[in-house]
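Please complete every field before forwarding. Incomplete forms are returned to the sender.

SECTION A: IDENTIFIERS
Entry label: holo-342
Bound molecule: coenzyme A
Molecule representation: SMILES string

SECTION B: INPUTS
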Amino acid sequence: MVFWKRFFNPDSTSSPSLGPTGAEEFPTDDSDKGRIFFTTDRDIDLYELEELCDAVGWARRPIRKVKKAVECSFLVVTMWEVRGNRRRLVGFARATSDHAFNATVWDVVIHPSLQSKGLGKALMQYIIRKLRHYDISNITLFADPQVVDFYRRLGFVLDPEGIKGMFWYPD
Amino acid sequence: MVFWKRFFNPDSTSSPSLGPTGAEEFPTDDSDKGRIFFTTDRDIDLYELEELCDAVGWARRPIRKVKKAVECSFLVVTMWEVRGNRRRLVGFARATSDHAFNATVWDVVIHPSLQSKGLGKALMQYIIRKLRHYDISNITLFADPQVVDFYRRLGFVLDPEGIKGMFWYPD
Ligand SMILES: CC(C)(COP(=O)(O)OP(=O)(O)OC[C@H]1O[C@@H](n2cnc3c(N)ncnc32)[C@H](O)[C@@H]1OP(=O)(O)O)[C@@H](O)C(=O)NCCC(=O)NCCS
Ligand SMILES: CC(C)(COP(=O)(O)OP(=O)(O)OC[C@H]1O[C@@H](n2cnc3c(N)ncnc32)[C@H](O)[C@@H]1OP(=O)(O)O)[C@@H](O)C(=O)NCCC(=O)NCCS
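SECTION C: PREDICTED COMPLEX
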């Protein structure tokens, strides 16, 4: 079955704990670009994900660990450009969570060829909606300095009541 | 079987994915106070946990959600004061994780009657050691302003390379 049909097949739920993959189409005028879909389906070619991360200059990570991280995240959202029966991974984000109070969003990325068209915003809004659906009310993330304003526009606040993000790294 | 014996029983592993509970004793001179143990065992009376959180003034949370959060955290560490065959919950912390790259520590608490004796530090060092054992190298947390220095002494750094903790809350 071709990819986007599977999106709308109610029998297809790759992540039972999360229910149906809930694919959604991102409306676009530019028919040359193909159609854009979001989904929580985890059927991802990890080499394609690596290419996407390479395209924004992120350091390579061992595929074995990326596989584990994708499996063990609470929510994984991918964005696909679909033309005919071919699809291309153009966006990605994931969140860890305790399934109850807190979630933390990691690895938000849109392919450079599709940035600044509203896709990053739509991806984050989709994540927020999904997490709210599970009644998670404390959505957190660690923003690189150049994207703080991107998240601020989405309603994220910096250091509320003086709460500070802190990191521990091995020596 | 009494509580602290079960700690040292190699057959007792409440969290198979995390291996043995790895109980450890915190050395103390004060024999009046009983013995202090850490463990990753999740056999917790949730009402006792609520009492501990009450004791430091945290807002009450629905027990149903606390249960889910304890189950779905990657790591849960508890600290117990043991006298005879009675135990009392005196410390708690937990971490969410993608089991690969990142972990985020939540709900770090030591009972007021036992604060300032090095237990909080030992609890955090125990968590760091456990997470490092699973090869997780990016340990994060969100610190209330009055405890930023507590975490700093443990090697946590604030906003490294300008990375900022951000929060989204429902309206
Ligand atoms: C950050 C990123 C996901 C944004 O995605 P995008 O599709 O380009 O963003 P959008 O087009 O949806 O932008 C939404 C809004 O944010 C603004 N915005 C986008 N990137 C921004 C940035 N870096 N700084 C400030 N504002 C930004 C847009 O102008 C737009 O504003 P508007 O709603 O007023 O029109 C994307 O640029 C990216 O993948 N960057 C590289 C990877 C990265 O840095 N990820 C974040 C790691 S923490
Ligand atoms: C924060 C908390 C866990 C610390 O535990 P503790 O057992 O009292 O701390 P320790 O005795 O192990 O202290 C370790 C070191 O940190 C220092 N320290 C402890 N609390 C501190 C604070 N609030 N600010 C600055 N330094 C602090 C101690 O002086 C000690 O320093 P040293 O190593 O130089 O001797 C405990 O006070 C607590 O439960 N507080 C209420 C709940 C809370 O605020 N949790 C954190 C939410 S983000």
